[in-house]
Amino acid sequence: MARQLNKLSANEVKNAKGSGKIRKLADGGGLTLVIKGESKYWWLRYRFAGNEKTLSLGSYPQVSLADARKARDEAKGLLKQNIDPSAHRQQESTQRASDGENTFRALCEDWYQQKHSAEVTESHAVRNWRRLEIYTFPQLARRPIRSIQPADILHVLDKIVKKGNVETAHRVKTLISLVFRYGVATSRADSDVTRDLTGYLPKTQVKHQHALYKPDEVSRLLKDIQAYQGHFATSAALRISPLVFTRPGDTRQMLWEQINFDKAQWELPSTKNGAPLIVPLSHQAVAILKEIEPVTKHRSLYVFPESVSSTG
Prior knowledge:
alpha+beta, Double Stranded RNA Binding Domain, DNA polymerase, domain 1, hpI Integrase, Chain A, 13 helices, Tyrosine-type recombinase/integrase, Integrase_DNA_bind_dom, DNA recombination, Integrase_recombinase_N
C-alpha cells in the first residue's frame, strides 16, 4: 500500500505548538514540519544512491504548507531523473552567484580587453567602447548575461532608431553580437541573442561620395594638392596620400616607429579591420617623409601631429 501523502492541514501547521523537545509532524512523502521552541521549519527526507539525506525547505510561515509540498514534489521529480536534490540546489546556487558576477558590462570589459582592443586600431576600439557605454549600458550593464533576451536588445535598438540614428543602431547591434559570441566562446553565454534579429532594423541610406574617375578630375586634384599652402604637416599628409592609398584615418595616425626607411615601407601592426599591413613606399613617398622628419619627429610620435587632432 502506498504511503499516504498530504496528511497535514493548513490549520494544523498554523496551530502546532512546540514543547520542551523537538516535535515533528509528518505530511507524507518524506516531508516533515519540525517544531523547535517557537520556530517551525520544513525538512524533506529522501534516499539517494543508497544513503538517507535531509533537505531543508525553509521556515514556516515564509514557506507555506502548499509551498513545501510543491518543493517536495519537485525534489521527487529530480530523484526520478537520478538527480540528487541537494546537489541540484547547490549547483543552482553556484549558477546564480556566477550569473550575478557575469553581467553584460563585465563581459563587455573582458571582450574589449582580451580581444577587441588587440584586433583593431586604438581609435576604432575606443569609438566602439563609447557606443556600448552610451547606447547599451544604461539598460543592460548590470543584467546577467543569461537573463538578456532578444526583446531586450530590440528595446535598445528601437531607442536608437527613433532618434534617427539607423546606422548607429546597426553598429550597436554588431557590437552586441560580438560580445555575445565572445561569451559563447568563453562559456558565459548560451547563444548570440542577436541572431534572430536579422532583417529587423531598417536599411541604412548609403550616400556614396563622388568618385574621381576622369583623368582631368584626377589631374586637377593632384595639382590642387601640390598648390596647397596650408600647414606644413597637413600639406605633407595630403601629398603622401595618393602615393600610399590607405584609409585617411591610417594616414593621419601614421607613427614614426612604423616607418622603415631601410626597407622603404610603412609597417602597420593593425588596421581598422584588425589585420596588419605593410605599405611599400615609393621614392617620392620616402622623400616626403625625409622632408618632414626634422620638423615633427623630435616633438611627436606622429608623422603628421597637427592632422591627428582632426581624427573622428
